[in-house]
Amino acid sequence: MASLLDGVFAAAITPFDVEGVIDYEQLERHLKHLEAKGCQGALLSGTTGEGPSLSVDERIRLFEFAAARTSSLLSVAGTMTANLPETIKLTRAAYDAGLEITLLGPPFFFRQASDEGLFATYKQVLDAAVPSDGKVLLYHNPGVFGLGLSIDAIVKLRTAYPQQIIGIKDSSGDLDFNRQLCERLPDFKVLLGADKLLSAALAHGASGAMTAMSNLFPDLLIDVMQQSDAQARVDQAVEKFAGLPYVAAIKYLLKRGEVIENEAVRLPLLPLAEAETQLLVERFHLNATSPWSDSAKIGAEE
């Protein structure tokens, strides 16, 4: 199982129909698109997937859908919420559905929570909801959550649950933190959530990526896994989204590419404003009839 976490994972979007309901036909199409592009797996109901904006029942249905698919794409269930009971319910439901890996983030409201409080929270979830053969990725994203685990706390959790906690999605953007984590836990699977740091992190022991950009350009990140000089093209792709709401922008481009049919996002997010759409169109050199530029064109005009 651990070796399956070496590679590129998409932090997958959640497609909605015109009524704002999860559209499973569009989701299936997108997951097949990711698999065809070479993704190792997909995170469902994460940050890019607007997981906190989905109801508990919607997320459970999403996990059941993923578990029922016949595919080589490894599905990871994002089960973090702001409260312990719902996190336990979602985590248990993911394993009950047949998924093997969950992504557990901290409760993201009380930003003054200590390492001791966060450790106790994770312990309750692990003890109540994760089977002995269940696998867990921790989720470190202090810029979004407003808090995160220290390296000492991560080591303590790994030591307490060595068979279950097998890795982490590190979206901190802190390369020194990532390096120290790889040094302290050399057998830990560290997946980068920050596209622009992938090459540098791989050099000190990271195992792969789990990012929003992988919805669009997983092949670029796969190239970085194979050759570090490909990082410049990833950086160029990321820079095209500067100043734009990234979930809405990704959905817009996937719609332009006819991967999904609807670019709707859940409140409080909003679709791209007219000026934002125009900026994205200009950056990707689109016209009225062209789809969004594929990854082969990234870097060609810069």
Structure, briefly:
By secondary structure, this protein is an alpha/beta fold. The protein has twelve helices and eight strands.
What do you see in this structure?
This protein has 302 residues and is of the alpha/beta class. The chain has one domain: Aldolase class I (TIM Barrel), CATH 3.20.20. The chain has helices at 24-36, 56-68, 84-97, 115-129, 142-145, 151-160, 175-184, 198-203, 218-226, 231-239, 246-256, 274-283, and strands at residues 7-11, 41-44, 74-78, 101-104, 135-140, 165-170, 189-192, 208-211. An eight-stranded parallel barrel has the order 1-2-3-4-5-6-7-8, surrounded by six helices. The model has no long low-confidence stretch (mean pLDDT 92).
How far apart lie the N and C ends? 40 Å
Cα-atom radius of gyration: 18 Å
CATH topology: TIM Barrel
Helix content: 40-55%
The CATH superfamily label reads Aldolase class I
Tell me which CATH architecture applies here.
Alpha-Beta Barrel
Q: What is the CATH first-level class name?
A: Alpha Beta
H/E series, N to C? Answer: EHEHEHEHEHHEHEHEHHHH
Number of helices: 12
Low-pLDDT runs of 5+ residues are none
* Percentage of residues in DSSP E strands: 5-15%
Biggest β-sheet, characterized? Answer: 8 strands, parallel, barrel
Q: Give me the secondary-structure category.
A: alpha/beta
Average residue pLDDT:
92
| Morphology call | globular
Counted beta strands: 8
Number of domains: 1
The largest beta-sheet arranges its strands as 1-2-3-4-5-6-7-8
